[in-house]
Amino acid sequence: MGFLDKLFGKNKATEEPKLTEEKLNIGIILGSTREGRVSPQVGEWVKGIADQHGNANYEIVDIKDYDLPFLGVADAPGIAKWNEKLASLDGFVFIVQEYNHSMTGALKNAFDLAREAWNNKSAGIVSYGSTGGARAAEHVRGVCGELMIADVRTHPTLSLFTDFENGTDFKPQDLHLDNVKLMLSQVESWAKALKTVR
User: Fold this and answer.
1) pTM for this structure?
2) Interval 94-138: pLDDT, tens
3) In terms of C-beta density within 10 A (0-12 exposed, 13-18 middle, 19 or more buried), how is residue 135 classed?
4) Crossing angle of helices 134-146/105-112, nearest 10°?
5) Average pLDDT for residues 66-75, to the nearest whole number?
6) What is the dihedral of CA 145, 104, 49, 176, to 10 degrees?
7) Do 158 and 165 touch, CB atoms closer than 8 A?
8) Main-chain phi, psi angles of 102, to 5 degrees
9) How far is Cα 187 from Cα 193, in angstroms, rounded to an integer?
10) In 3-state terms, what secondary structure has residue 19?
11) Is the model's pLDDT at 19 over the cut of 60?
12) How far apart are the C-alpha atoms of 107 and 102, rounded to whole Å?
C-alpha cells in the first residue's frame, strides 16, 4: 500500500471489482447470393482464422438467408430481421466479389436496406476477382464512409487465378494468412473504440 493509499484509507479490499469486458460480436457478411457462389468457402476460411487468432465472437451472416427485397419494391419481414442482426454486431468483415468493376447488386441492396444499424462500427474487407476484387472493394469503402462504417486499411485480396482451382474450389495461398490476421486485429481494435461512441 502506497503513502497516498494509507493517507486516504484506500486498499484492495475496499476497491470495487472490475467488470469483465464483454467480447465483441463481428459478422462475416457474404456478399453474393447467386447459385454456384464461392463466398461461403471464403467466409468459412476467414472464420476459421478468426476463431483461432481473433479476440471476438465471429459468425457468418449470409445475405441470402434474409430474402431481402430490392429497395423500394416492397416491405418484407426480412428487412426488420436484417436490421436486427446488424444492430447486434459491433463490426463486420465483408466478403466482396467483383462484378463489372464493382460489388454485387445483392451487397449494395443489403447496404441500402439499413442505416443506423451500420453506424459507428468497424469493417474489414476480403475481396476476390480477376484483379483480387480491388475495384469492388474500393466501391465498398465509399459506401462504408457514407454509412459511418470505419473500414480498416489492411485488405486481403484473393485472385481467381491463383487462389481458386477452376474458378470454383477455394485453395488460398499461405501468404494471405498474415494479412487476414492483421485485418482482424484492426477490425477488433476499431470496433472496441467505436463502441464507446455508440
Assistant:
1) 0.88
2) 999 999 999 999 999 999 999 999 999 999 999 999 999 999 999
3) middle
4) 10
5) 91
6) -90
7) no
8) -150, -175
9) 10
10) coil
11) no
12) 10
Three cell numbers written together for 14: 475496499
Q: So what's the pLDDT on residue 17? A: 45
Return the residue matching grid coordinates 477452376: 166
Q: How many residues in total does the chain contain?
A: 198
Q: Which three cell numbers stand for residue 70?
A: 430490392
- Determine the residue type at 95: I
Q: What proportion of the chain, given as a percentage, has pLDDT over 90?
A: 84
Read off the C-alpha cell for 173.
Answer: 495461398
The amino acid occupying position 24 is L
Q: Please give the torsion angle defined by the CA atoms of residues 167, 168, 174 and 178, in that order, rounded to the nearest 10 degrees.
A: 100
C-alpha cell of residue 45: 476460411
pLDDT value at 14 more than 70: no
Task: Walk me through the domains of the chain, giving residue ranges and CATH numbers.
Answer: 24-195 (3.40.50.360)
